[in-house]
Design brief:
Length: about 230
């Protein structure tokens, strides 16, 4: 293993360890000593990569953002029914949150504006949801009287609520919870001709893309497969 590869692996390990500490103890109580110990490296190695705890938190937030944006982009750029893609992306994000501590911690740090929040992931989620609903309207998929801005508000409130509740009980991120949510929402949001055509459980099995979504979804390309993307 080259020196560069070792440095990349160390950075990855530090980001994951930091995420675990931030999730378990919160940003204020997490210490750099605990983060370096969790990564199995010295304090000196941590400071080689990060100047302080705020810099570590920002790296966790950036990593989470990459994973979430990748899933959102795939939904927006996909083919087929826009409403079904909206249902599917909520399931994809839930699986990612459930499986990846870096994404969970990064989203929480971003919501709490711990690292200065140079980006707003909740705003980006709102834009993703609105874009899919606007496309659904153009395709004639929305029910009468449910313009994108109204249906977007409902979807955002429901999905954000589930993410917050899941901080105490990860069961909220399970497929049954989101499936029940969409069983209630779709009859109100979808045009009548789509009744029975949309799957509130999502169109992909839990095992279908789980590895793709969670296996290094936040690592950067361009460093022999080992770097953050």
């Amino acid at each position: 293993m080259t020196k560069q590869d070792r440095a990349v692996r160390t950075r990855l390990a530090l980001i994951r360890s930091a995420a675990e500490q931030f999730e378990a103890r919160g940003y204020v109580r997490a210490s750099l000593a605990e983060i370096s110990a969790g990564a199995g490296v010295s304090s000196g190695a941590l400071h080689f990569h990060f100047a302080n705890k705020a810099a570590v938190a920002e790296a966790v937030e950036h990593a989470a953002a990459r994973g979430l944006r990748r899933i959102a982009a795939r939904a927006r750029d996909g083919d087929g029914c826009a409403l079904q893609r909206l249902v599917d992306v909520t399931h994809h994000v839930a699986r990612l949150l459930c499986a990846d501590v870096v994404v969970r911690a990064g989203l929480r740090l971003n919501a709490d504006a711990v690292a200065g929040r140079v980006r707003d992931l909740r705003r980006e989620w709102r834009e993703c949801v609105h874009a899919l609903l606007a496309e659904a309207e153009r395709r004639g998929e929305l029910a009468a009287g449910m313009p994108p801005h109204r249906s977007c508000a409902v979807v955002l409130a429901a999905t954000t609520g589930i993410e917050v509740l899941a901080r105490e009980d990860s069961g909220w991120l399970g497929r049954p919870s989101l499936t029940d949510l969409w069983r209630l929402l779709l009859p109100c949001v979808a045009a009548p001709h789509l009744a029975g055509a949309l799957d509130p459980a999502g169109t992909e099995p839990d095992s279908g893309r789980a590895a793709e979504e969670t296996g290094g979804a936040w690592e950067e390309p361009g460093r022999a497969g080992l770097a953050l993307r």
